[in-house]
Each structure stands twice: as C-alpha cells, then as structure tokens.
Known about the structure:
Helices cover 35% and strands 15% of the residues. The chain has helices at residues 6-12, 54-67, 78-89, 104-114, 129-135, 158-167, 221-231, 237-247, 250-269, 288-294, 310-317, 368-382; strands spanning 71-75, 95-99, 120-124, 140-146, 171-175, 193-197, 211-215, 274-278, 301-306, 324-325, 335-337, 358-362. It has a 7-stranded mixed sheet with strand order 1-7-6-5-4-2-3, with helices on both faces. A 5-stranded mixed sheet has the order 8-9-12-11-10. Its EC number is 2.5.1.48. Keywords: Pyridoxal phosphate, Transferase.
Amino acid sequence: MSDHAFATRAIHAGQAPDPLTGAIIPPIYQASTHVQDGIGGFREGYEYNRAGNPTRSALETQLAALEGGASALSFASGLAAEDALLRGIVKPGDHVLLGNDVYGGTYRLLTKVLAPWGVETTTVELGDADEIRQALRPETKIVWLETPSNPLLKIVDIAATAEIAHAAGAVVVVDNTFASPALQRPLALGADLVVHSTTKYLGGHSDVLGGAVVFGDDRFYDQVKFQQFAVGAVSAPLDAWLTTRGIKTLAVRVRQHSENAQAIAEWAAARPEFETVFYPGLASHPGHEIAARQMSGFGGMLSLALAAGPDAARAFAESTELFQLAESLGGVESLIGYPPDMTHASVRGTALAVPENVVRLSVGIEDVADLIADLEQGLARVSV
Ligand SMILES: *Cc1c(COP(=O)(O)O)cnc(C)c1O
C-alpha cells in the first residue's frame, strides 16, 4: 500500500475482502478467544483477544499506513493510548517536556496519575527554541507536542522541535488528533511516535471512542504492546470496525471541514464582536507560515475570543443551534464549546488555563451558509 496516495491507503490498507466468503468488508471478529490447533497452534497468531483480534489488526494496519508508520496499536481511548505509550517508555525519575497548551487530559495524566509514580513534567512554550533548550534535562525522555493545539490552535514547527529534542536524546511524540494524518504526517517531519484520539476525526461520526499509537520504527513497539497486553485497554472489535469505517472517508471529510472552517474564520475575522480569531488558515495567524509548510490544509477547528468578555462567550456558546453545545470534536456535525468550563476545566488556574472569553468550534461538514447563519443568529441573541 505504501506506493499509493493517502486517500487510497485510507480505503484499502488492512481492508482486503474476507478470504472465506469474499465479503468486500472484512468481518467484525466479535470473539474473545481463538481455537488452537493443538497446544500453541495459533491460527494467524491469534489466541486471547487482549493480545490481538483480527478486526483490531485491520485497523492497526490502516492506521500505520495513514501515518506512514512501521506499525500501530489501537486502544479503547486516546488517553488509554497515551498512558500505554508513557508507561512503556518512561520510568520513575524520568522527565517529560510538554507544550504549554496540550490537551488537558494529557496534562492531567502526567501530573495527577504519573507524577505520584515519580515522573516529572514541565510545560514550555514550544514555539520558543531557547525555552525548550533550557527546560531539557539529562532525564528528559519525551518531548510531547500537539499542533495545532487545543483550543488556541498554536502551531509548533515539528521538524525544528524534533531536531532540538533529538540532540538532547529525547523521543518526540506528536498528538496528531487535531490535524489528522489527512493534513499532517509528523513521522515524516522527524517525530518518533504519533498518538491519536481516534474518537475525533479518524472515527469522524461521534459514535465511537478510541485511541492509537503509531510507531515510526521498531524501537518502542514491544514495550508499548506489552503495556497494552498487560493492562488491557484495547479497542473492542465493534469499536475498531467503526473506526475503520470512519477512516475510509477521512480524506473527503477533512477537505470539507477545512473549507468550511476557512470560510467561517474569514467571516468571523470581519465581525467586530470577535476580538481574535484563532485559525491557522488566516494569514494573520502567527503560525500561518509554518502551518502552510507542514500541513496540507488547516483543518476544521477554530476558536473565537469575544470582545465583550466571558459572559458573552458563555452566552454565545449557548445560543447556537446547528453548532450543538458539547465536548469533543472532529465529527461530521458542528459543535461549540466553552473550554474554561468544559474541555479545559481540569487546567483552570494552571499555566495551561484558557482565556475566559474564548469559545471553540468544531466545524462540521454541513452546508457552510447554514453554519454561518447559525453563528449570526447566535450573535444576535447575545447582542454583544
Ligand atoms: C480528545 C483528545 C485526547 C483524548 O482522547 P480520548 O479519546 O478522549 O481519550 C487526546 N488529545 C487530544 C488532542 C484530544 O482532542
């Protein structure tokens, strides 16, 4: 599959028809165990399904092909994937360097779950090379970045950051959830590992939770796979299958998400009610040039700061209709959220806190004129 283009790989990698019946879609292997032909006589290597399941394998092959990786592992959620990755690589005494606006759940996992086990975390402004160099220690095992970031859509130069991190002997992990591999492939830019919440764009329909680790080479596979097997946060067969199905339309969906978000960003930039429009597709965005270089589109996420302040932001988030008020992102339907109280409540009062006048949009693939009309009526209702 590696000689085919992205959209082709998304549809065919790991998705060969069922050899027994010719069913064009590989079946959902809804089973917990596999019969052995004599003790240890495993068919295709499958035994107990915490260790492996054919539907999960099909998804893992597809995920590796999307990111241009050597292999992938599929988990029950994005955070389960992050947890297995971290515990597979870091040990007590090790240090992890994080961007200062990473996903709140990643920060919580490191500072609340792993910190008591002796893993130290520092957050830095990853756009500042000097700040990264100063924060790196001999114990720094991982430099973890997210670009575009959530919810302020900051852009980090993956190649430049990887160079600094590698010079200090650290492993580079990119959370590629926001861009998705349709727009950005961190392994080709120097990252060692990619993580995903497949709950978002990869699944794409807000109907399944999942996560993935994609490996650039063979160095870390065994230790992360061991964590997955020993702890057990695997994706269930139906969940893996739904994710596989979502991925097949990823390329067209993301194209439309990006087109709609660009139109909304341009509309919002011309409205005085918004003090700042955070969208990397706008030439005024500080990360625009880097994004244009390392991404093939700017994605479906954007945030808006309301000039009238926090109360107006809250009211606006509650005033739209097509943009439904909910956490999460990346589905075909548009969502609006108020990060300080919703997705980012866990980082309130920390260095990662989000400005209180910001709302976040996950722009869906509905008709964009309807979406803009909805935002307009929302503004009219809050009369900011
Ligand atoms: C949602 C999300 C996660 C966590 O994934 P879950 O599937 O909710 O566990 C991690 N990173 C980013 C950027 C996310 O948006």
